[in-house]
Amino acid sequence: MKGACFLQVFNLIVLASSFAFAYDPSPLQEFCVAITDTNNGVFLNGKLCKDPKLATANDFFFSGLNIPKNTSNSVGSVVTPVNVDQIPGLNTLGISLVRIDYAPNGGLNAPHIHPRATEILLVLEGVLYVGFVTSSPNNRLIAKTLYPGDVFVFPIGLIHFQQNVGKTNAVAFAGLSSQNPGVIAIANAVFGSNPLIKADVLTRAFQLSNKIVKYQQSRF
Ligand code: MN
Q1: If you measure from the C-alpha of residue 173 to the centroid of ligand 1, how many angstroms do you get, rounded to a whole number?
Q2: Is residue 116 predicted with pLDDT exceeding 90?
Q3: From ligand 1's centre to the CA of 80, what distance in Å?
């Protein structure tokens, strides 16, 4: 009886961990500092690992995330990523960070998707209107206005956005559940692909005139 119960618990743990492995895998070692030099490296999970004996504190370090970025661009926001490309020690660890600065009166982190990560966002300064949209056929908008100290979650793979609806600068930090979350900016991907998607495809998809599609394509 005791043995059978143990087996059930064991099966449950195996089942649970197979779900947990659905995205970035758990690390196979304490750390795997990424290197670009292919000599003396061990190929693992997309990046080469540095010999652990040669790892230093700087492999796990990034600085400057306290500095506000200039948000005077077409959308009025800047995302500063801190992922495996900035901190090579993040390799295989399944986590990363961004700082997002928003211009006053509408600065927008435009609708986008992270194909490999769920995002958890903390507002430090300002007022943000944020949201995400569930998949078809419901396409339900789940949205909220956030203030300093508020936290919001954007589930993996869903379209989401944040907009500064206050009169002052806004700043947020977000953790992402991948060393390399990836980003698909919807407008850029649709209207600014290289080469461009045939205008007739977008005309029908978005129910727009050919002229507006061509204009949009010229903007991105
Ligand atoms: Mn995001």
Answers
A1: 10
A2: yes
A3: 11
